[in-house]
Specification:
Elements lengths: L4 H10 L40 E4 L8 E4 L16 E5 L5 E3 L1 H4 L6 E8 L8 E7 L1 E3 L1
Antiparallel strand pairs: 1-2, 2-3, 3-4, 5-6, 6-7
Length: 138
Amino acid sequence: MKIRPLPAVLLLFALPLSAEGIKFREVSKAWGIDFHHHNAAAGQWFLPESTVGGVVMLDFDGDGDQDLFFADAGPLPGYTGEAPRSRLFRNDGNGHFTDWTEKSGLKLAWYGSGGAAADVDGDGDLDLFVTGFGGVQL
């Protein structure tokens, strides 16, 4: 295979080199996604403080719309802020999400770091596997 770098280099220069025309808008709250990730840092330099939370897209209610799970931190020794918690948001199919954390029975009492969705038990619906510092939950 012969590599031809010239077309790739020309394409690079044909693309705009400025982000001037790119505009971002904050729409998460308008869509019902009221979530803020906490790292629960208390100045003790614990390893979990440097990890980031995870996001899982899944259709937990089987309606064909992608719902969202956000893994959040948990209280570490010395942390005095608002207690962080992971959240599950249901997509209504019309561009709006509703917090279903309480309705789902999802109770995570540790530092969440990520997750995955699959039909683990073979019953035809998705299961949410959440990972974190201090445990895992299915």
